[in-house]
Amino acid sequence: MNFFQAVLMGIVQGLSEFLPISSSAHLVFTSNFYKVIKGIEIAQQSNEEVFLDIMLHFGTLIAVLIFFRKDIFTIIKAFCKRDFKDPDAKTGLYIVIGTVITVILALPLQGIAEKLVFAPAVTGLLLIITGIVLLVSEKISANQVSKPLNFRASIWIALAQGLAVLPGLSRSGWTIAAGLFRGISRVDAAKYSFLLSIPIILGASMLYPVININLHEALSYNWKAIIAGTVVSGITGYLCIKYFIKFVSKFSLAVFGYYCIIVGIITAIFFDCIK
To answer: Is 44 helix (H, G, I), strand (E, B) or coil?
Structure first.
């Protein structure tokens, strides 16, 4: 792994983590396309590449924490008071319950998700499904009156996040779509989607290195590249959140649905042809 690759992956992660286009799919596409160009076998992935992927997610986590710092503080403060008539306390409770549901659903799928890293064509097909889900959710939500986040909606959103452990099933796309299906506005669904991602990304960023990384091996990693990629993913992610929230307050998610379908078709055909 070199500096350019890490920075490129950082940009891809920062843009695609919060846009409903599947960051994991785009990391799979970018990494494997880079390998094709360099003549590296797709079925190979070093521990350093896996660690870079975790750190890129950590960079976007920092972006969420900074952007929503006031909301996070308010939710934690309200949650600690345990007055669940307070909407902020309810949101905190929904996040806790949603995180548990996500973990229960995602863990059995983790093995499949890891195999899909080496199956970009299949990942492309899953991205097409994401595009279809986005288009259908927009169609249905257009005929609904927006309502506040509630318990049932939070459960559906958590289930969507659990399924989205699979590359190609966009976490933000599926969670926002789940919110739209339940009558939640785009802005509220997007904000809740980003807040719900915090415990999961934080857990993965902390647990994976402790469990899987050999300290002696880690010393040989290209840390300049890893740090650069992480910083780039954080900066790109922060800007993406800022402008995406503004976008969804005015415009439909249909453009992202069409994007997912087109990119999914292209990548599925490309990687299937080079087998």
So the answer is: coil
